[in-house]
Amino acid sequence: MSTPLRLSSLSRCFQGVVPSVIATSDVQGIPNVAYLSQVYFVDERHVALSRQFFNKTQRNLDENPFACVEILDPLTFEAYRLRLKFLRSEKSGPLFDTMAMRIDAIASHTGMTGIFRLIAADIFEVQSLEKVDGFLTASPADGSAQGPSLDGLRSEVRGLQWVSDRINRAQDLESLLNAVLEALDEYFKFSHTIVLVHDESSDRLVTMASRGYGRSGVGAEVPIGQGLIGTVARERRPLLLTTLEGDLRYGRAIRREAATLSAELGTGAEIPLPGLPDAQSVLAIPLAIGNRLVGVLAAEDRDPMRFGEWHEAYLEIIGNQIALGIDRMLDLPADDAPEPAAVLRAPAAPPVPVPVTKRKTLTYYRNDDAVFVDGEYLIRNVPARILWKLLGESQRTGRTEFSNREVRLDAALGLPPVKDNFESRLILLRHRLRDKCPEVQIIPTGRGRFALRTGATIEMIER
Amino acid sequence: MGDPHINRCLDGGMSILLGSVDAKGRPSCCRGIALTSGDACASVTVYVSMAVSQETIANIATTRRMAVVASHPIDHCSIQLKGTARTARLAREDEQPLVRSRLEQFGAILDTIGIPRSLTSCIAYWPAFAIDLDVDEIYEQTPGPRAGTRLR
């Protein structure tokens, strides 16, 4: 005797990898058929559909509540048919918020904010569910394996233990972030990851660490609310997109149509995704303590089925640990006490041997609050001011050793009195110097202390 | 001749959907394989695998009303045809190459967006029904604010 199908056993079909189909009918008995980008699983008896435009499907449902939906398993390509009855539209609440965030993220990424948006979450009762026998001539793959096996669970628990230990032992922000990304790669095979930290003064996310990309991208900024990652930050909710390219094509199709209809729509330019140019799936987790945003952790992959709901739940646990770890680092007193044994510290880069005859010209543009090196942009805002202070002090007094405490107390830097993100700004400055001006280095020398090393004659110009 | 936007639905590689309704107003849907027309979409023939279309055939035998969507998987350009089924017949052997070719073209396009041919090559396409449809109305179906606009 075969086991009755359960909606919850078809979770892959609800990831939107293959568009679903919906048929409705008006009261005159004229059918309408359309694609659905995604069917949302609510519970064993209910699904939800997103209402983005008031279209024929919605008009039909207002007249005749019955619908037929066909969904496809993206791994096995088996088709399933659902007989539905429309119950109600929700315009707020947790389900609406979850569905709206996904659409908002795609809209923001394709420059369609406010035009491509969720109007309502339409809730349907599932009256019957059946497999469409005969849709395939043969079974292309065994897609039954899903979710963690017991071995997998053991590995994940070990991974969690490892991440937790690394976070606990980390002595500085850079080693904490690098250790976390390394653990995600080693234990979960998340090979392309990025951590962005919230800079409250500019209300932007600043990339602090990455793994699996050609360039580190450290220093890349994302405004809160913009694009996929910015939306996760604004909403403080995780986002799992499993059909990124398809979703973006869908968004672009709408933008193209909208632009054709009206030249006054003023749609903005598309924001390039940081990371893989051909990513098919993205999982982004807000790093928050209470409702206070600390940053965002994002992973992406070329496999559209790489991340599942289970990964999302697991990464949220890790995200909470990372948020606490980052927050602890940002709260660390800049004392000069000897550091305990067996702590993790970002390894100091060996000084780059540079002929001392080399000359570098650094220019600080006061109006732009930015430093350029030999005419090329280096850094701006607070990290630029920190660099300018250190170089100036060094040239005036010959000092090369500094403590975090003395630098952060300098009112001219404009740091906020609490949660000043000093260490993250120092990491950013260190990375930018490594990339653009390796003749100047900032090297950690102990807890809350660092040294300025210069391998060239530095000319400072202020304009 | 005719509107190129409308005629594009007859190209290979399009995704074909069928909607029908029974005498009680309960809708049904299934996926089609090919769409052809000899008169610029005044009438069309839709090919659909027999295995998945028995309910659709039963519905159009009763109500004759049918909706057909043709959509391009890459750019989502889509139109919807609405009309009255004239006949539903077993597809002839000489129509099989066309149906197979359309499924292969569809699989080739899906392959470019990450859905491998190993999946699409397993879709049943034969034996097939050929449904001849007199087209009464054609609508824009591309996602966006113009979706639902009547084109003909």
What does this molecule look like?
The complex is a heterodimer of chains A (463) and B (152). Chain A is an alpha+beta fold and 463 residues long. Chain A folds into three domains: 7-131, Electron Transport, Fmn-binding Protein, Chain A (Pnp Oxidase, Chain A, Roll); 156-330, Beta-Lactamase; 341-345 and 352-462, Winged helix-like DNA-binding domain superfamily/Winged helix DNA-binding domain (Arc Repressor Mutant, subunit A, Orthogonal Bundle), CATH 1.10.10.10. Chain A is 32% helix and 29% strand. Chain A is built from ten helices and 20 strands. Chain A has a seven-stranded antiparallel sheet. Chain A has a six-stranded antiparallel sheet with strand order 10-9-8-13-12-11, sandwiched between helices. In chain A, strand 15 and strand 16 (376-380) form a beta hairpin. Chain B has helices at residues 4-7, 54-62, 96-112, 117-120, and strands spanning 15-21, 27-32, 34-36, 43-49, 65-71, 78-90, 128-140. Chain B has a seven-stranded antiparallel sheet. In chain B, 43% of the residues are buried.
Short descriptors:
heterodimer, A: 463 residues, alpha+beta, Pnp Oxidase, Chain A, Beta-Lactamase, Arc Repressor Mutant, subunit A, 7-stranded antiparallel beta sheet, 32% helix, 29% strand, elongated, B: 152 residues, 4 helices
What's the short story on this structure?
The complex is a heterodimer of chains A (463) and B (152). Chain A has helices spanning 56-63, 94-109, 150-169, 173-188, 227-235, 244-261, 309-331, 381-397, 404-408, 422-436, and strands spanning 20-25, 31-36, 39-43, 46-51, 66-72, 79-90, 120-131, 193-199, 204-211, 221-223, 239-241, 281-289, 292-301, 359-365, 370-373, 376-380, 401-403, 440-446, 449-454, 457-462.
